[in-house]
Amino acid sequence: MLTAHTIKILQSLDKKKFRQKYNLFLVEGNKIICELSESNIKVKEIFSTDPQKLDRTDSSIIQITENELKKISFLKTPKDSVAVCYLPEEKNTEDKDIQLVLDGIQDPGNLGTIIRLADWFGIEQIICSEDTVDVYNPKVIQATMGSFTRVNIIYTNLVKYLSETENINIGTDMDGENIYSFERPGKLNLILGNEGNGMRPETEKLLQKCITIPRFGKSQSTESLNVSMAAGIILGQLFSK
Q: How many alpha carbons fall within 13 Å on the CB side of residue 185?
């Protein structure tokens, strides 16, 4: 049985300040929880309505009721289990040949989808501005479908980082080079900006190349693509060469 104190702590983990205070975050659903054993994520304990469905012998599993699960879950339709995990230590930044760089991404679903895309295309590292949504936000974790365990996420001062990186800084612009004829450099940072405002001016000044996704539709009413959708199109093209 969950105590009121434990429930209160777990409920508070939807906010970054409490995740940092307790050094904890939540992972929901048996599928993602089972993937944690193959990562560097350390599990404190697991609460489950059906422990027998969890193939984990390395963690403490506490059986709870459906009603208790609803109190600690951040999902509209709670899944069978919730794992309480320790926040991992951030790794040192070393340039990878192909990286994503996120400048002020705010929507948890977008960040989660971008992490999933990175995992799909074998991109090992994403560099984020300090105001990008926290990767351990429960909505981000859920949207990654487990990919957060395989992609290194680093938060840093982007201007400093992009000024010092040896990779070619590439961003999107309506007047940029057509992505379908663009020659991919050997080492690159693909920079994606904020959903509403794009990348900030100080980031834009550090771009060395600009690319664009051409519009084929006759209607000109669509102003732009969702940032995670654009990321998928660009990565698909970059990796086709």
A: 17
